[in-house]
Amino acid sequence: MVFVVGCNSKTSCKWLEIFTEKKTLLDVTGKGMYRRMKIKYDITSLERFDDCNVVYKITLPKETYIDIDKIDLIQWKHKTGHYSNIEIENPSHLGKETIFYAYPVKTFKRSFLYSDKFEIDIKLRHFAPINKSSSPSPSITFSVPQFFISCPNNKTIMNDINCTKYLHKLPCNSNSVDRCYFIEIPIALV
């Protein structure tokens, strides 16, 4: 499955209009129950990002799950945390979607361009048996991950009343109970 995402929309938040390119590629590969989800972000700005942090809010469909015990072994470029659901034994019809956050280790340092790739192993839940002659194969729909950025040195975001609707209080990092303000960079389907 391949999903290509981009956005050319204008917003009333002036700070968000400095982004000239916002692209996301979501790719899920593999066979059987074991799959690999790859998310690639490319964001270009007219102004330099100055010491900004990024977080991805990822929602996995109820038909999938991740093995929380093994996640730290495969993530050295990102730290993940704040999982909404860690139940792995339920079959697909009893499963619940899983929301979690991924925090890239690197930050923006005086750059016009942000490019990152996040990869994670996922597993499919067991599906009820189907009669192949009368039932279609099951399908799974993945939603586009949300992209948030926090630039503590940029006061424009906090002072522009038009930007406040894009502000979200999210966990500051992968294991923090504290909340920080992040602004959502809207990325819509093309």
TrEMBL record:
Q: Does the keyword Protein transport apply?
A: no
- What is the recorded membrane topology of this protein? Single-pass membrane protein
| Keywords for the protein's UniProt record, in alphabetical order | Endoplasmic reticulum, Glycoprotein, Glycosyltransferase, GPI-anchor biosynthesis, Membrane, Transferase, Transmembrane, Transmembrane helix
Which GO cellular component terms are attached?
endoplasmic reticulum membrane
| Function according to Swiss-Prot or TrEMBL | Stabilizing subunit of the glycosylphosphatidylinositol-mannosyltransferase I complex which catalyzes the transfer of the first mannose, via an alpha-1,4 bond from a dolichol-phosphate-mannose (Dol-P-Man) to the glucosaminyl acyl phosphatidylinositol (GlcN-(acyl)PI) intermediate to generate alpha-D-Man-(1->4)-alpha-D-GlcN-(1->6)-(1-radyl,2-acyl-sn-glycero-3-phospho)-2-acyl-inositol and participates in the sixth step of the glycosylphosphatidylinositol-anchor biosynthesis. Probably acts by stabilizing the mannosyltransferase PIGM.
Q: Keyword Amino-acid biosynthesis on this protein? A: no
GO terms for MF: glycosyltransferase activity
Q: Which GO terms describe its biological process?
A: GPI anchor biosynthetic process
Identify one Pfam family in the record: PIG-X
Name of this chain's protein: Phosphatidylinositol-glycan biosynthesis class X protein
Q: Where in the cell is it found?
A: Endoplasmic reticulum membrane
> From which domain of life does this come?
Eukaryota
